[in-house]
């Protein structure tokens, strides 16, 4: 019997499924892992050294929306990005950062309740689920009840986008789905309150009804029942990216079955948006702050949100795999904007609903906790391609 020497098959003859999944990424796993570590270090060390970005309220309170130690949506999204990183890697540093943040905030006392200050409770719900720490439970109970029973409503029962410095009477914003609706659903599942979950479903439907642009599938930033209009009709990048993030998160969180009507409706809504996102992606791989306006600047936080949502939706089988390439391209463009110090550059500051497109284009660029977190989400989802 002679020894048989096997010659390798020419790569062009290999079945597609046998090719290594990272061959076309043109990316190095260690490089992305290092970028994630630097993003985290930068996230917890951001400071507003000049006071330019502090929110000063009429009652004398000063709200830090830029530094890590405030209590706002910016830190809430930062915590969620940190949690998703921990969920993927088990990184003890990320775990300690989250635990310590909540311990410090509890010692300081709770902020006034609004749409944005609910955001950190999404991560707190996950931490309670993991730890069973009874100290967390009263906070989830009280804030969940406030959202369900006492948060101001618009016509048709929508969550009014009330914030620290404005009640925004009768206004719906796409940000609300990330900041309050997703936390309410998670708390409802965790505490066995199905009425919270049903309310979260209702909020998705009413926001889709009034904020989607039927011509493009993209989303307007805001709607008001007072005058019944979408303000500047702005197809704002970061607002759209909240949608791209939360729809896959919501479907996964609720474990909606394939034949569920709401699941189908949400996926159709997401795919209509992504179909147009593919058309308006800039040559760099990023997306612009006004998606359909080539004169507006490219914005990295929104781009990170799009990359995360698209890649996750493809991985979960919610949308067609044909969209994976634009998600990969977006994630790689985001990686290019993570500096050696770990700062995600080209991030726009917090943005209210404006009455003109130019006001969106004039929003300043600065490092922000939510930008760091959205980059963490995108880089973490990209890392699945190496598994």
Fill in the keyword field for this structure:
13 helices, 387 residues, 51% helix, globular, mainly alpha, Glycosyltransferase, two-stranded antiparallel sheet
Strand content: under 5%
* Shape type: globular
Estimated helix fraction = 40-55%
Q: Provide the gyration radius in Å.
A: 21 Å
Major sheet attributes: 2 strands, antiparallel
Q: Terminal Cα separation, in Å?
A: 40 Å
Classify the fold: give the CATH topology. Glycosyltransferase
Determine the mean pLDDT. Answer: 93
CATH class: Mainly Alpha
Please mark out the parts with pLDDT under 50 across 5 or more consecutive residues, or reply none: none
Instruction: Please name the CATH architecture.
Output: Alpha/alpha barrel
Instruction: List SSEs in N-to-C order.
Output: HEEHHHHEHHEHHEEHHHH
Structure description:
It is a single chain. This protein has 387 residues and is mainly alpha-helical. The chain has one domain (22-386): Glycosyltransferase, CATH 1.50.10.10. It contains 13 helices and six strands. It has helices at residues 29-43, 73-89, 92-108, 120-131, 137-150, 175-191, 194-211, 237-254, 261-280, 300-315, 324-336, 357-361, 369-383; strands at residues 54-56, 62-64, 171-173, 222-224, 287-288, 298-299. A two-stranded antiparallel sheet has the order 1-2. Strands 3-4 form a two-stranded antiparallel sheet. The mean pLDDT is 93.
